[in-house]
Amino acid sequence: MPAHKNLIRIQAAKQEYDWGRQGSSSLAARLASNAIGHGFQVDENKSYAEIWMGTHTNGPARLYDSPSTPLLSLISSDPTFYLGETLVQKWPSTTHIPYLFKVLSIQKALPLQAHPDKDLAKQLQLKDPSNFVDSNHKPEIAVAIGEPLATTRSKVAKRQGDEQEVVGDTDTAFTGFVGFRPLEEIKGFLQAVPELGEAIGDSRLVSSFIHSPSKDLLRQIFGKLLKRGVEAREELVKPISQLQDRIKQSGGNLGFYNSEELARLVLKVNKQYPGDAGVLATTFFMNFAKLRKGESIYIGADEIHAYLEGDIIECMAVSDNVVNAAFDEPSSLASQVDTFVNMLTYTARPVSHWSLPAQKYQHAKSGRTVKYDPPIEEFIVLGTFLSMKNAKEEHLGAVDGPTMGIVTRGKVRISTNKGGETEQLELDEGAVVFVAAKNEINVEILEGHGPDEAGEVWWSLFGA
User: Fold this and answer.
1) Which residues does the UniProt record annotate as the domain Phosphomannose isomerase type I catalytic (predicted)?
2) Quick one: 35 and 60 in the same domain?
3) Shortest CA distance to 341 belongs to which of 218, 171, 256, 246?
4) Which residues are known binding-site members for Zn(2+)?
5) Fewest beta carbons less than 10 Å away: which of 113, 126, 260, 453?
6) Is 0.70 topped by the overall pTM?
7) Average pLDDT of the segment spanning 301-310
């Protein structure tokens, strides 16, 4: 086992879920040739959803040059050196990296979900430790890093014969459902879309909400819809089919503002999950987020979301806890839906409420790095953007905690300096590194990617 290296290449973990992009159309798969390495080959029949970079039990990173050695074991051999004194004092009971860093490549909607806060996570772990293997909360951010969906869809369609329509502007790189719409918007949909009331199945409750919208009534009405989707899913098939027919007959003009986009969403999601309560729960109750490359959203604990399509950098507090309520088999959701309905914050705001703007990173010498700084203590995310033409190098100041990085474009040389000692690695696209606490980091582009000859590295770190 290497002793006291500051710059360590690691072997990430991959996750295959059916919502991931298939074969080499998946960014996660393309990066995996170096992130996983050791003979990894893309299987065009598999869906590659995620690359994990962290120490969580469900997908632990390992030392690239010694794959039998978990990164956590190395850290545990000297936590103060690798994590830094600040972090060790803050969380003395663990030697885990406090965040879990990921690349996600999404082809269809993830399950409608929320992540529990710390108190609920502890309760769920005690009750069901096989499904809730940790007791931590899981606030997270998502940063769009892929090409515009129109471009990636065209490539996927050529490869797989998939002609699903892209919903969003021409430069939209990620779409997803995030948080609840303002209450007045939901009221308007209940008035304009009769199939929605039929799917909920409680005309008195619907009338009460229309008369006087409130968070409590939102909880009741939304809960009714989700529970019917689990307990009597067959009863939702008719109203959803009727709505789909009406959309097709009207050309998507349902008579209210932005109905064409919402109509396309209904058709798109219903094609993925026919007759599922989530088709209505997402489209008419939740905000539809459209991110350009470099734009980001923040999802706090107990906040509802369902990512739909695109390639993203994702980072969260170190946890894998999730509660689902739609876009999955009713048998799987039956034990979760009550918890889901009761745990949500029911924050009902415009989509801008969840936006997390990029900011200038104060410790970047060349100004080629931006930061995404969520209102939590476990991590921030950085993006470093270089070019062979005019911006070949960046220098990042030392921070108190550990840093994880992945090269997503080009070939770079990463070097560290701590106490006058320099270490360096030359890394191609997909390569992942761990940097011990208190290190200055220098990044130099060696080969650019594409006509702009660009290089790109994404980082997650503690202590900035």
Assistant:
1) 7-147
2) yes
3) 218
4) 113, 115, 140, 305
5) 126
6) yes
7) 98
